[in-house]
Write a structure and sequence with these properties.
With about 625 residues, this protein is α+β, with helices and mostly antiparallel strands.
């Protein structure tokens, strides 16, 4: 019997049959997987038939929260969206800061699982235990911002709304799930999974109370933590620039993605820094529920034409500026707004545009393939045109809509070397010519190349970019445990800890006061290892095999040294990267190819899963 924290219920929705049921799940799952990502991978392993096409109605779309979600403590308004990814073919997830997380908790659900496919464009209206299947014909085709406005007017400003834009409707593999116009989650194409189900939106309202083990004590501790956030030395700088403060640092350290990750230094970076954004373009800020350090720096265009506002985050700005050669803040604001409205991953859009420019530059595609477009670096108009081609699946845009991995295999030539992805997921905004630790983080991320699991690059810069030892590998795993394990299962935002150094000791205390369960840091690390190993097992189950190359970043970083900036001439050393990967596998208890050993799976309570892998012919070493 759970004392508090968890709702203990999963809402299971079948769109095909227009049926909804409430499951009370085994409390041991909550205790051993906590929530969020942990609950999602447990559901996928247990309930998704191996080999299911990600865009088939049988695929499961999961929204999951955790026992700290929506509580009165720093930045707790998060949820995880997860599914089998159409972009990678493996496990995919993302987190979204949104009122939907609060409403899920008040409705009493730890997860909402959606299967099947609606007969016509539909949306779900969920209020507590009641589910209504509503027509979305009037909002199908609208962009994500318009849908938010329409559904807010119908169901109230405090409704939690999750939606897709045109990218999701068109089954673009870069499509994400949007919320509150500017918040996105599910980079591995989870918006396409939602679109494949004819599901335009999910509206959630809850009217209940979250049951907590020691509510008064939790409120007191949460208030103390919120005060610590405000008193942090880094707080004023964070409140001014948010994640955009990283832009200048990346330029100085030659890790700013430039010209499709060809370089790590951009000759016009000074026009795009966080300082420029904050002092010249910023008009307001926006945060998630229960956040007192909002990361949403809303900037407004200053050029001629209709004024446009967008939330400026380092990742989307870098990928839609330096990585495609643009040095005009107004143009980047417009690109961010446009891609968010379409419901397409801003990072993936920047990667796709850069890949297309380089493929054209190298003669692998021509203007006929691009419907007359002649793209070049720094050209805003052609960047917009490429995105339109991809969204509408015209000419090369159709090929591109299936992802960089697919497009590079389709056009061939040298494109495989400059298709900047790992496992099919485009790399986020850190060039790794000089950063082997961050390259390893990308290589071993459980969803493909994403920084959210182990943003090791700042630590690596201090420790030494040139070092490739066990300490650096152990730091990657430590960060994966905390960022991808703790925070992705609690589910809360990691930024209070990362950016203003809120003491990590708060979180086991929060867990106890919420749930009544005493988790030590070692307990939480063990759970994180269990989740990472089960995610790896899921990939292996879906692929039927695993190879070291799947945990290795693109050839470009190994073969093409930087030609600009203070780190000119630097590139990754393949032998040293493989040495680090060997250490990583050893520390994780996986074999030399990256497959978990039987003894590791047994020690993590995954004996049944090990037998299931062996039953489909996967050889597990002892």
């Amino acid at each position: 019997m759970l004392k508090g924290g968890w709702g203990g219920k999963i809402l299971w929705i079948d769109l095909t049959r227009e049926k909804a049921s409430i499951w009370k799940y085994d409390p041991s799952i909550a205790l051993n997987y906590i929530g969020g990502r942990g609950l999602a991978i447990r559901i996928l392993w247990d309930h998704l038939k191996p080999g299911t096409d990600p865009l088939h109605p049988d695929n499961l779309l999961i929204f999951a929260v955790g026992p700290l979600t929506a509580l009165p403590l720093p930045s707790s308004g998060k949820l995880v969206v997860a599914s089998k990814s159409p972009l990678t073919g493996g496990y995919g997830d993302g987190n979204v800061g949104t009122r939907a997380s609060v409403m899920m908790r008040k409705a009493g659900f730890d997860a909402i699982v959606i299967e099947g496919k609606a007969e016509e464009p539909s949306y779900l209206y969920i209020e507590d235990d009641e589910v209504e299947f509503k027509s979305a014909r009037d909002i199908w085709g609208l962009d994500a911002s318009q849908v938010h406005d329409e559904l807010t007017s119908l169901h109230g400003k405090d409704s939690g709304i999750l939606t897709i834009g045109k990218a999701g409707e068109n089954l673009n593999h870069f499509a994400v799930v949007m919320s509150e116009k500017d918040r996105a989650g599910g980079r591995p194409g989870l918006g396409a999974v939602m679109g494949s189900k004819n599901l335009k939106a999910v509206v959630i309202r809850g009217n209940g109370q979250i049951k907590l083990f020691k509510e008064d004590d939790l409120r007191k501790l949460g208030t103390q933590a919120l005060r610590d956030v405000r008193k942090a030395p880094m707080y004023p700088f964070w409140m001014e620039q948010g994640t955009m403060g990283v832009y200048e640092w990346c330029q100085e350290n030659s890790v700013l993605p430039t010209y499709n990750f060809r370089e790590g230094w951009f000759e016009e970076a000074e026009k795009m820094t966080g300082k420029v954004m904050a002092q010249e373009y910023k008009v307001t800020q926006k945060g998630c529920p229960n956040c007192n350090m909002p990361c949403g720096n809303v900037a407004e265009t200053k050029d001629e034409g209709q004024k446009v506002r967008a939330e400026m985050d380092y990742e989307n700005v870098a990928m839609l500026s330096s990585n495609i050669g643009i040095s005009n803040m107004n143009e980047t604001i417009r690109l961010v707004r446009y891609t968010d409205n379409l419901g397409i991953d801003t990072i993936g859009a920047g990667a796709a545009v850069a890949f297309t420019i380089e493929a054209y530059e190298k003669g692998l595609i021509d203007k006929n393939d691009l419907d007359g477009i002649e793209p070049k670096w720094g050209d805003y108009d052609s960047a917009m045109d490429i995105i339109d081609l991809m969204i509408n699946k015209k000419k090369f845009g159709k090929t591109l809509s299936f992802g960089l991995r697919y497009a590079s295999l389709k056009i061939g030539g040298s494109s495989v070397k400059f298709a900047m992805h790992v496992k099919g997921l485009p790399i986020t905004a850190y060039d790794c010519h000089v950063a082997p630790g961050m390259a390893l983080s990308y290589g071993t991320s459980p969803i493909g190349a994403h920084h959210k699991d182990a943003w090791v690059i700042a630590w690596e810069a201090q420790y030494g970019f040139d070092k490739t030892d066990e300490k650096k590998v152990a730091k990657v795993i430590e960060l994966q445990r905390i960022r991808g394990g703790w925070f992705e299962t609690f589910v809360t935002c990691r930024l209070p800890w990362v950016e203003v150094h809120l003491n990590l000791d708060y979180y086991p205390k929060f867990m106890y006061l919420s749930t009544g369960v005493e988790y030590s840091p070692q307990d939480l690390n063990l759970i994180a290892d269990r989740i990472y190993t089960l995610i790896r097992a899921f990939w292996i189950r879906e692929y039927g095999y695993w190879m070291r190359s799947m945990d290795t970043p693109p050839e470009r970083w190994f073969e093409e040294p930087l030609t600009q900036g203070p780190k000119k001439g630097t590139k990754l050393n393949r032998e040293k990267y493989n040495y680090m990967l060997d250490i990583y596998y050893k520390l994780r208890g996986w074999d030399s190819n990256g497959v978990p050993t039987k003894s590791t799976m047994n020690s993590l309570g995954l004996s049944r899963e090990a037998r299931e892998l062996e039953a489909i012919g996967v050889e597990l070493k002892t």
